[in-house]
Amino acid sequence: MGPLWLMFSGAFLAATLLPGGSEVLLLALLNDTPSLWLGLFVAASLGNTLGALTSFGLGRLGRVAWEPEKLSASQRHAMKLIEKYGVWSLLLSWAPLIGDILCLLAGYLRLPFWASTALILTGKAARYALLLAMVKSL
């Protein structure tokens, strides 16, 4: 399996409701193949965005039953962000604990698909760009 496909699939799985750390994978692959930094960045950004859109789609299909009294602290926090900032809250879709929930809620609340996609991609790409910039500066 090539490093770009590995990066894409790892980032995709990490963005769904499954646990995973695509940042560690990016750093490992970057260490092995530094010349592929741009391809790895694109693969990570697209894979992570498509994984988040999977959660968005599940939310839109209504496959989530929300019982406000049973929400965890991170779920309540995500709901407050969505209620306050709407689609703009998806810039935080990369964030641990609340990112996956934000995408799920965005779909459930039927936020606009294309605006949601653009903001999810922007947030996730910015995270990977920052990580790459930090590595390059070392």
Automatic annotation (TrEMBL):
<feature type="domain" description="VTT">
    <location>
        <begin position="35"/>
        <end position="134"/>
    </location>
</feature>
<dbReference type="InterPro" id="IPR051311">
    <property type="entry name" value="DedA_domain"/>
</dbReference>
<dbReference type="InterPro" id="IPR032816">
    <property type="entry name" value="VTT_dom"/>
</dbReference>
<keyword id="KW-0472">Membrane</keyword>
<feature type="transmembrane region" description="Helical">
    <location>
        <begin position="113"/>
        <end position="135"/>
    </location>
</feature>
<dbReference type="Pfam" id="PF09335">
    <property type="entry name" value="VTT_dom"/>
</dbReference>
<protein>
    <submittedName>
        <fullName>VTT domain-containing protein</fullName>
    </submittedName>
</protein>
<keyword id="KW-0812">Transmembrane</keyword>
<feature type="transmembrane region" description="Helical">
    <location>
        <begin position="85"/>
        <end position="107"/>
    </location>
</feature>
<keyword id="KW-1133">Transmembrane helix</keyword>
<feature type="transmembrane region" description="Helical">
    <location>
        <begin position="36"/>
        <end position="58"/>
    </location>
</feature>
